[in-house]
């Protein structure tokens, strides 16, 4: 653990100017996460995922992209064990999550971190207490050691000076960085990011993006990034999966995605209004709706 | 015909829903009790909630108790003076408060102030994914968030009810003895002679403990089960106050039947 702490201390909190992804943490190439033909739906009538297959090697930062409501966040919830797949297998480190006992599931969750879309910071605690929360819950570290460890985590995200503030006193970008510090508090093997760039200004967005990349490499983690932000993702990730209609419709490394002629990928990368992704929710023709007297 | 069938179907659906809700509440209660170990091994969690649920309810409960006692004395005097029994004022005030008004009104006030706050806080934690974040951190939110609030309510309300009755009796004394001029010795003496510790006081305490379990369970359940939207939290908070009030009054009737049946039969 001390080596990992040293790595965090060495890290600079300022991002590199070009921000190009450089994965120093190649891992051993074995898959950390495997989803095989996974289907999931809250009801039988409304299936969110239908036959998703993807694999994430150890030590890699992988983005999962797609339109709103396509099931990206659902994949993260399956990996946390918050939902169980209707069919198919969800494996983390070779273990099928759906077959885990309650104790195994809690043990699995202790080894992962999740950054929620809006941070999910505990509003009745200070920034320091938020970051200290998982450490206090799962370790018996003496208070002076815990204090230093929390300050190290906050230093890694550039917010050591904000330790005494309440979440309500933070900007959106700062709150996201505090949540990031809390996510990595126990040095997780796997980190799941749910829309970490949503609502951030360009500077905060770039800082958060660089932090995600650097933390992944410095701590030897495996990371999955669910996002809409194609430009920032192309700068920091190793591999990208595109999800649409509950399925993986395209995937590849950054170079492959940039050069792809796949209509879905082109539409997404270039932000084109016309393409395989529909703008309108399915409905009868507008003229018919008007004549029926209601929309 | 179909309208009548639909009406019956509606009643059936609501009945089934109510029974399912009761079953869910029972299972939730068992889950809370099972997850309560850390509440007592980490007293800091409980002390914080005791402050929020109990200490912060003191002002409204004490002030209400004082005024209720004063009004009881004024209204009681109007009736007792007709029968020349104003010396029984102390008995009237004390029995009304200790047996009924103390536990019931303190319970209603507690549900309105602390119960609604507990529901809103847990509901908002759910809406802002704080409970989900705890789950993902392998921390059981029922143990960390729900159980301390539940036990804080269970511990606080009986004390608040006792303080309500105490202040109420003092309010009655102020009006009866200091304002109206009834003999102070008669006021306290009759009260001491007529109020039975086990029959009156302990039954009142039992009532407040039962109300405490009911209100605290309703508050944490509604918060934990709230729809995670602004509208959902608002509806859950309203349900806590309404359901708690109805539960207190219904349970009070049942307990009164069993506790004070003897005095009704003569």
What do these coordinates show?
The complex is a heterodimer of chains A (295) and B (266). Chain A has 295 residues and is of the alpha/beta class. In chain A, 37% of the residues lie in helices and 22% in strands. Chain A contains eleven helices and ten strands. A six-stranded mixed β-sheet of chain A has the order 6-7-8-3-9-10, with helices on both faces. In chain A, helix 4 (127-138) crosses helix 5 (143-156), helix 4 packs parallel to helix 6 and helix 5 (143-156) packs across helix 6. The radius of gyration of chain A is 20 Å and the shape is globular. The N and C termini of chain A lie far apart (60 Å). The model of chain A is unreliable at 1-26 (pLDDT under 50). Chain B is mostly helical. Chain B has one domain (35-265). In chain B, 87% of the residues lie in helices and 0% in strands. Chain B contains eleven helices and no strands. Chain B has helices at 2-34, 37-41, 43-53, 58-80, 89-127, 130-136, 141-180, 184-194, 197-224, 230-259, 261-265. In chain B, helix 4 (58-80) runs antiparallel to helix 5 (89-127), helix 5 (89-127) packs parallel to helix 9 (197-224) and helix 7 (141-180) packs across helix 9. The mean pLDDT of chain B is 93. Classes of the chains: A alpha/beta (295), B mainly alpha (266).
């Amino acid at each position: 653990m001390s080596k990992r702490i040293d790595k965090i201390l060495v890290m600079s909190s300022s991002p590199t100017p070009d921000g190009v992804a450089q994965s120093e943490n190649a891992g051993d190439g074995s898959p950390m996460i495997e989803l095989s033909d996974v289907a999931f739906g809250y009801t039988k009538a409304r299936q969110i995922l239908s036959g998703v297959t993807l694999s994430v090697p150890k030590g890699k930062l992988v983005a999962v992209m797609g339109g709103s409501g396509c099931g990206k966040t659902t994949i993260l919830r399956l990996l946390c064990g918050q939902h169980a797949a209707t069919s198919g297998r969800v494996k983390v480190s070779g273990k099928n999550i759906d077959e885990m006992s309650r104790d195994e599931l809690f043990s699995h969750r202790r080894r992962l971190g999740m950054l929620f879309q809006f941070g999910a910071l505990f509003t009745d605690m200070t920034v320091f207490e938020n970051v200290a929360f998982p450490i206090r819950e799962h370790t018996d570290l003496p208070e002076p050691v815990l204090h230093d460890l929390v300050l190290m985590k906050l230093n890694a995200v550039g917010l050591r000076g904000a330790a005494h503030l309440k979440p309500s006193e933070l900007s959106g970008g700062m709150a996201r960085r505090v949540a990031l510090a809390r996510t990595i508090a126990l040095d997780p093997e796997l980190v799941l990011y749910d829309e970490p760039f949503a609502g951030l200004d360009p500077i905060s967005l770039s800082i958060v993006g660089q932090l995600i990349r650097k933390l992944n490499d410095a701590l030897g983690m495996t990371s999955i990034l669910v996002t809409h932000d194609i430009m920032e993702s192309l700068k920091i990730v190793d591999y990208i999966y595109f999800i649409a209609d509950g399925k993986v419709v395209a995937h590849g490394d950054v170079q492959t995605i940039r050069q792809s002629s796949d209509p879905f990928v082109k539409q997404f990368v270039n932000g084109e209004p016309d393409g395989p992704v529909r703008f309108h929710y399915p409905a009868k023709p507008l003229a018919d709706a008007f004549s029926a007297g209601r929309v | 015909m179909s309208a009548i069938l639909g009406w019956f179907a509606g009643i059936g659906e609501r009945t089934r829903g109510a029974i399912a809700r009761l079953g869910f509440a029972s299972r939730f209660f068992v889950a809370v009790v099972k997850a309560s170990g850390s509440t007592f091994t980490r007293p800091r969690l409980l002390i914080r909630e005791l402050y929020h649920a109990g200490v912060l309810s003191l002002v409204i409960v004490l002030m209400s108790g004082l005024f209720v006692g004063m009004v009881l004395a004024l209204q009681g005097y109007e009736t007792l003076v007709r029968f020349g029994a104003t010396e029984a004022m102390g008995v009237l005030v004390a029995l009304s408060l200790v047996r009924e008004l103390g536990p019931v009104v303190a319970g209603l006030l507690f549900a309105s102030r602390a119960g609604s706050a507990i529901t809103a806080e847990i509901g908002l934690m759910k809406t802002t994914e704080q409970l989900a974040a705890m789950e993902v951190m392998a921390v059981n939110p029922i143990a960390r968030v729900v159980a301390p609030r539940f036990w804080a309510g269970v511990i606080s309300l009986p004390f608040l009810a006792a303080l309500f009755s105490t202040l109420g009796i003092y309010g009655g004394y102020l009006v009866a003895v200091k304002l109206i001029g009834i003999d102070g010795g008669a006021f306290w003496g009759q009260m001491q002679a007529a109020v039975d510790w086990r029959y009156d006081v302990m039954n009142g305490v039992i009532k407040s403990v039962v109300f405490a379990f009911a209100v605290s369970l309703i508050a944490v359940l509604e918060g934990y089960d709230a729809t995670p939207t602004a509208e959902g939290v608002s509806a859950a908070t309203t349900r806590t106050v309404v359901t708690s009030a109805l539960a207190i009054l219904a349970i009070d009737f049942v307990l009164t039947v069993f506790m004070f049946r003897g005095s009704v039969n003569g």
